[in-house]
Amino acid sequence: MTVISPTVTRRDVINNLGKGAAIVATVSALPVSAKAAVDGHRPQYGMVIDTRRCSGCHACSVACKSEFDVPLGYTRSWVEYTEKGTYPNVSRAFLPRLCNQCSEPQCVSVCPTGATYKREEDGIVVVDPDMCIGCKYCMQACPYDARFINPITGAADKCDFCVHRVSQGVVPSCVNTCLGRARIFGDLNDPKSEISRVLDSNRVTVLRPEMGTKPNVFYIDADHSDESDIRFAGQYIDVTTHRKELARR
Known about the structure:
alpha+beta, Alpha-Beta Plaits
């Protein structure tokens, strides 16, 4: 039997290389969630906040307000100051706060209309303002006091990891603007991502783990001291929330 080998010209090779490069370029330009789909896993976005790098400058809070035109008196992202000790042994710590984008979000389970839901494509908890009736059930259910009723829309509002940016492959505004690079954002389900590497190499904590919500916002070297905690009874502790809600929750 005679086997006929097709003749391959230099032009054919160049054309095929061009096609391959185009495919690689297309995949590289995809948002992370789309890349994950190509790789065969479903992403779960999360954030690590390294408080050792936080200077309490509030750039993250300002960037968030600017990004979403947050009404005065309300916050999607904020930074708490914790001062404690007895002179001369005193300290001040900073604790950036935002929606914890929980794996088991209580806000989702109590929403009567389905306005609050967890996106299947990336695990981000969002609010559909057109479906929200402003009942405040989610505000009561959230252990982190991360929600408010937007006085302009009348709907529940909160941090959504800048889903409009993330869906285009751009990091959240607070991450982009952090001067100390204290915030690391990425796919927790990707073992090669920066956030996964940081979690593997650092001891981290979450806020209110006893609530069972499985937060996806993690802290390195965070000071969780609170004046209402009996473990710190008799010690001077003062928490400044920098919100109209003066008490930490």
